[in-house]
Amino acid sequence: MRRHYEHHRTGRMAWLRAAVLGANDGILSTASLMIGVASAEAGAGGVLVAGVAGLVAGAMSMAAGEYVSVSSQADSERAELELESWELANDPTGEHKELTEIYVMRGLSRELAHEVAEQLMKHDALQAHARDELGMHDSTAARPLQASAASALSFASGALLPLLAAWLAPAAYLAAAVIVVALLALLGLGAMSAKLGGANMIRGAWRIGFWGAAAMAASSAVGYLFGVA
């Protein structure tokens, strides 16, 4: 008998979102900062210092922001589970009826819904209510440390690309090298994240590339307008 295997992507959504956001921000914010400084006619050393400072500050900011945000989500989830535990302990009959109605609304007959609710609550009542009443799943549970680390590492990884371009390029072509490398990296990131998420790769690449180019153009304009020279 041939077994049927399905490959779903829901398990990777949490870390994929944090990783893509971090890498995109790392590439774009660092490249834009460096281009703005270069457009202000600062020297190559000043551009590199600005890029390194942007990498460090950005990685720490992403880590802290993601940790606080996801910790708030985890606190909310914990509070909901505590409330559900209290309701299960004090009104198990009412909670059984509530779960039964959920299954009836999903298309089961009342008799079958009653039996399913009873069996699931015998196995793990809190898990059944967390999943079917509150919509909580292990694959989407809030993990602050994981999200924080993923955001910081992905930001730093993305920020390294324009930094390396500026370091290796001749001084006369520094800004152009940063722009080209950043745009190529953004297009690749957009296509890769779309593929991992099962979406259209061209649309994903175009979307991130367009906004990346707009951000770098705006930073360059600011550098020209408020340049030091």
Question: Which features characterize this protein?
Answer:
229 residues, mainly alpha
Description:
The chain has 229 residues and is mostly helical. Helix 1 runs antiparallel to helix 6 and helix 1 runs parallel beside helix 7. The protein has one domain. Helix content is 80%, strand content 0%. The protein is built from 7 helices and no strands.
Give the overall shape. Answer: elongated
Please mark out the parts with pLDDT under 50 across 5 or more consecutive residues, or reply none.
4-11
The overall average pLDDT, rounded, is 79
Radius of gyration: 25 Å
* Helix percentage: over 70%
Structural class of the helices, strands and pairings? mainly alpha
Cα-to-Cα separation, first versus last residue: 76 Å
Give the biggest beta sheet. Answer: none
Proportion of strand residues = under 5%
What's the order of the H and E elements?
HHHHHHH
Tally of distinct domains: 1
Task: Give me the count of strands.
Answer: 0
Number of helices: 7
List the quaternary state of the chains: single chain
Briefly summarize what is shown.
The protein is mainly α.
Topology of this protein?
Elements: H1 13-39, H2 44-90, H3 92-105, H4 110-132, H5 144-168, H6 174-196, H7 201-225
Helix pairs in contact: 1-2, 1-5, 1-6, 1-7, 2-3, 2-4, 2-5, 3-4, 5-6, 6-7
